[in-house]
Amino acid sequence: MKVSAQYAQEHFADLALAASNGEEVEIEVYGQPMLVLHQRRTSIPFKRTAPRILGEGIGEMVVPEWDEWKAIDRELERELNDHPLIQGEF
Questions:
Q1: What's the N-to-C CA distance of the chain in angstroms?
Q2: 74 in helix, strand or coil?
Q3: H helices then E strands: how many in the chain?
Q4: How does 10-25 read in b/e, with b if 16+ C-beta sit within 10 Å?
Q5: Taken in order 30, 33, 35, 36, is the CA torsion positive or negative?
């Protein structure tokens, strides 16, 4: 279904219901298609098919050392204190 932006503004609840029922709703602004409403596709949850193996993730994640954590903290503090919307020390 194609509708104008004005119609979509006035009848949004009806259009959302139509989209949730599987109909694709195209909203046009000045005759040009701008937005499409459609039903959200649900994702299939991951289901493990094999048993977990102890240590299977070794080497996939690196935890920073204490000095790296302190450097990250200093960098975040500098970013917050130098931001124009936030003034002063915390």
A1: 54
A2: helix
A3: 3, 3
A4: eeeeebeebbeeeeeb
A5: positive
Strands 2-4 and 25-29: parallel
Residues 6+ away with beta carbon under 8 Å from 75: none
Task: Name the residue type at position 67.
Answer: D
**Site of tokens 């000045």:** 30
pLDDT tens digits for range 43-84: 677 787 888 888 777 777 778 889 999 998 998 888 888 766
pLDDT, residue 87, reads 58
Number of residues written out for the chain: 90
Per-residue model confidence as pLDDT tens digits over 20-35: 888 999 999 988 888 9
Among candidate residues 37, 9, 40, the one with its CA nearest the CA of residue 25: 37
Comparing CA positions, the residue from 14, 9, 48, 15 lying closest to residue 29 is 9
